[in-house]
């Protein structure tokens, strides 16, 4: 029985992803069936979870991180404006997605691999960029979520 090329490609991407993650973080969990890897990054003042999932059907890797706080209702309008400003002015492909109804924010970076495989270097760069971006903005967004007049971090 032949295995569909999309399945083989997803398997290769997941195998490479696991190898890259093992070189970047000490502890992670790996769900082979769901093609998902989860790990935590500790930093001041937050510990943030990251989930990387290979979607066979979409031929897509998603790098996802739910920010470790909820925005109080009183500050959600200003917070939504801050998130929109970051997404419009600073993000190129990835986004911070804010749920105004529930008050949580996720960072989401899609990396498509349809009809091409993602190199190990690109996988590592995408993960490092995610870690740097979330680290860069998490304190700013936390401050805005608590009504603190915060300064948007410098670009670059």
Give a verbal description of the structure:
The protein has 156 residues and is of the alpha+beta class. It has one domain (5-145): Yope Regulator, Chain: A (2-Layer Sandwich). Helix content is 39%, strand content 24%. It has helices at residues 5-24, 76-90, 120-145, and strands at residues 29-31, 36-42, 47-55, 60-66, 95-98, 105-112. It has a 6-stranded antiparallel β-sheet with strand order 1-2-3-4-6-5. α1 crosses α3 (120-145). The radius of gyration is 17 Å and the shape is elongated.
Features:
Yope Regulator, Chain: A, 156 residues, six-stranded antiparallel sheet, 6 strands, alpha+beta, 39% helix
What is the approximate shape? elongated
Radius of gyration: 17 Å
CATH domain class name: Alpha Beta
Quaternary form: single chain
Spatial sequence of strands, sheet with the most strands: 1-2-3-4-6-5
Give the end-to-end Cα distance, rounded to a whole number of Å: 50 Å
What fraction of residues sit in β-strands?
A: 15-25%
Summarize the helix and strand pattern as letters: HEEEEHEEH
Mean pLDDT: 93
Structural class of the secondary structure composition?
Answer: alpha+beta
Query: Per CATH, which architecture?
Result: 2-Layer Sandwich
CATH topology: Yope Regulator, Chain: A
Please, how many domains? 1
Would you report the number of β strands?
A: 6
Q: Largest sheet at a glance?
A: 6 strands, antiparallel
How many helices?
3
What is the strand and helix layout of this fold?
Elements: H1 5-24, E1 29-31, E2 36-42, E3 47-55, E4 60-66, H2 76-90, E5 95-98, E6 105-112, H3 120-145
Antiparallel strand pairs: 1-2, 2-3, 3-4, 4-6, 5-6
Helix pairs in contact: 1-3
